[in-house]
Amino acid sequence: MTTTKRLYIGSDSGLTVLTGDGAIWLPYREVLAGKFVRAMSAVRGVNQAYACVTQDGLYASRDGGASWQLVLPGNVHSVAVDPSDSNIVYAGTEPVGLYRSKDGGQHWTELTALRDQPENVTEKWWFPQFPHESHVLSIFVDWHDPRVLCVGLEHGGILRSSDGGASWEDISAGIEYVDIHTVKGDPLQANLYYTATARGFYRSERYGRDWLFAERGIDRSYFHDLVVIPGNPPALFLTTANGTPPAWMRKEKAQSAIFRSLDRGVSWQQLTGGLPASMERMIWNLSADGDNPEHLYAGTGEAQGQRTEDSASRGGVWLSRDRGDTWAQIYQGPNTVRSVCVGSA
Length: 345
Description:
Blueprint (H helix, E strand, L loop, with lengths): L4 E7 L2 E7 L4 E7 L5 E6 L6 E5 L2 E6 L7 E6 L1 E6 L7 E5 L3 E5 L7 E2 L8 H4 L12 E7 L7 E6 L2 E5 L7 E2 L9 E6 L7 E5 L2 E5 L7 E2 L8 E8 L5 E7 L15 E5 L7 E3 L10 E8 L2 E10 L13 E6 L7 E6 L3 E8 L1
């Protein structure tokens, strides 16, 4: 029996929803027109999904993407669903803030202890572009203990809570430049953490303390999104580029690539198998199908200041059905793809 799914493609200017079985995808809806959909998350096994719209708020769909409702107003940059309880949802904001819902997004409470940090921590919370406010770009709910939370700040470092957000500890020591893009943990080893930053990839074997560079095999200098897929061993997938976004206006553009690690981030191999060896557009987002982790989706697109003459294909989605070995482009659109996720219909 074929299961119908939804593929959510969030862009700089709205949300495209496709429908299909994971092998073939067809157009379904165009929603949230004109909105910057920064990040997304779908709830496994039910037809519920969330979309972060910057300068607006968190939207939720409970009918497989047919309709969307604003459930948390604000400048929302990140969202995460508790892997042990899909009713528990977290949303990260700008200025730095973290909100939690225990009823699937209907009611929200701010975890105010996150903002209550000493000056030597908060003085790192800034962003290079006006209005220079830091934001929560990454949220990790521990696979092993849902009371353990981590947030990555752009810019500002990593903070960890072991009591469900009642108190927090800055665990950024060892990270050379605290522009944090993604924080993850290992699904088998509770002590093992990973983080991708603007200037390095790191791993920690002490619950996010004592970070060390882990870039063997990587020939890029900018690190963005990270996906950890369960397995024995787990597979790590990392998006990279050369230089920071302003440098991508050069002739070579972003020179982005995807790397995979099968030894918990100790060493990496670049994935091609249909992907260009060096992509002009940035690979902004990676997402795995929770029901079929062999399937991995990558969202690509231009950065600010980049504009091609072909306005119909400024963003795209690539799909691997074999854990990253081979890739094919399955979608092109007129806007940069910032976020991709797979959910149920």
